[in-house]
TrEMBL record:
This is Lysozyme. Belongs to the glycosyl hydrolase 24 family. Gene3D superfamilies: 1.10.530.40. It comes from Rubrivivax rivuli. Its EC number is 3.2.1.17. It comes from the Bacteria. It catalyses: Hydrolysis of (1->4)-beta-linkages between N-acetylmuramic acid and N-acetyl-D-glucosamine residues in a peptidoglycan and between N-acetyl-D-glucosamine residues in chitodextrins. Keywords: Antimicrobial, Bacteriolytic enzyme, Glycosidase, Host cytoplasm, Hydrolase.
Length: 266
C-alpha cells in the first residue's frame, strides 16, 4: 500500500507575527525585575509574553489565587527570546487550524490575517463565523468586512465596542486585502512626544448569529414500565389443595349441677 503524502505545514507569515506582537503587547507582571514576569489578563488567565496562557497539566491557571503557582512555573521571569519562542509555539498549531478550516486558496496576507484573528477570538468562534462561511463561498470582499464585527467585549456586563479591538480588526482586514495594515491599525502613533502604550484588551464576544452552537445534551429515554406477565400455573399448582376443614368447636362441657340434699324425714 503506497504511503500517504501529507502536505507540509505552512509557515506563519512574518507580518502576522508582527501584527500580533503590536496588538498583544508584552506586559510585565513585575516591572521591578529585568525579566518578563507572568501577569493576569482581562480574561482572568495567567499569561506571559505575547498572550501565552500559562497552563499546568493542560489546564489554564486562573485567578489571583494561582499567582504563586504561575510565578513558580516561570521563576524569575523569561527573556524576550524565550517570549519569542513561546509565541512561535502558539502560532504553529493555529496556522494548521486556519489551513484546515479554509477550503479556498489563501495568499500570505489572507492567511496571516486569519491567524491573527484566530489568536484573538479562538478556534470555536472562527469555525462558527459568518466570515469563514463567506470566505469558503469565495466571497472575499464580504469576508473582509466580517473582520470588523469582532470589536466588542463585555464591560461591566454591557457589550461595548472597544477602540483597541476596532483598531486591531481594521489592521487584520487591511492585511487580508493586501493593504497597509499598520496605517489601518493606527500603529506608531505619537502622543505628546511618546509612542502610544498598548493596552491589554479582553477577548471579543461573538456577534449574534456567529456564536458556536452548544452541543445539545441528549436525554436518556424514559424507561418504559415492563408489564409483568401473568405466570401460568403449572399442572401441579393447578390441582387444588384439599380445603382444610376447620375443626368444629366443642361446646363447653356443662357442669353437673350439685344435687341438693333431700330434707330429713321427721
Amino acid at each position: 500500500m503506497p504511503s500517504v503524502q501529507r502536505a507540509p505545514l505552512r509557515d506563519v507569515p512574518a507580518q502576522a507575527v508582527d501584527l500580533i506582537k503590536a496588538f498583544e503587547g508584552i506586559p510585565d507582571g513585575d516591572p521591578s525585575t529585568v525579566l518578563i514576569d507572568p501577569y493576569l489578563c482581562p480574561a482572568d488567565v495567567w499569561t506571559i509574553g505575547w498572550g501565552h496562557a500559562i497552563t499546568e497539566g493542560g489546564v489554564q491557571l486562573k485567578g489571583s489565587a494561582n499567582r504563586a503557582r504561575a510565578k513558580a512555573l516561570y521563576p524569575g521571569g523569561i527573556t524576550r527570546a524565550q517570549a519569542e519562542a513561546l509565541l512561535a509555539g502558539d502560532l504553529i498549531p493555529r496556522a494548521a487550524v486556519v489551513s484546515r478550516l479554509c477550503k479556498v486558496p489563501l495568499n500570505d496576507g489572507q492567511f496571516g490575517a486569519l491567524i491573527a484573528l484566530l489568536y484573538n477570538i479562538g478556534e470555536g468562534n472562527l469555525a462558527a463565523s459568518t466570515l469563514l462561511r463567506r470566505l469558503n463561498q469565495g466571497d472575499i470582499a464580504a469576508a473582509a468586512e466580517q473582520f470588523l464585527v469582532w470589536d466588542k467585549a463585555r464591560v461591566k456586563g454591557v457589550l461595548t465596542a472597544l477602540r483597541g479591538l476596532t483598531r486591531r480588526r481594521r489592521a487584520e482586514r487591511a492585511m487580508f486585502l493586501g493593504e497597509d495594515w499598520r496605517a489601518a491599525g493606527e500603529l506608531g502613533l505619537v502622543t505628546r512626544g511618546r509612542a502610544e502604550k498598548m493596552e491589554v484588551l479582553p477577548v471579543p464576544e461573538a456577534p449574534e448569529g456567529d456564536r458556536p452552537k452548544k452541543a445539545a445534551v441528549k436525554k436518556a429515554p424514559a424507561k418504559k414500565a415492563v408489564a409483568k406477565k401473568a405466570v401460568k400455573p403449572t399442572k401441579a399448582a393447578a390441582k387444588k389443595a384439599p380445603a382444610k376443614k376447620t375443626p368444629a368447636k366443642k361446646a363447653p362441657a356443662r357442669k353437673a349441677a350439685a344435687k341438693k340434699p333431700a330434707p330429713a324425714r321427721r
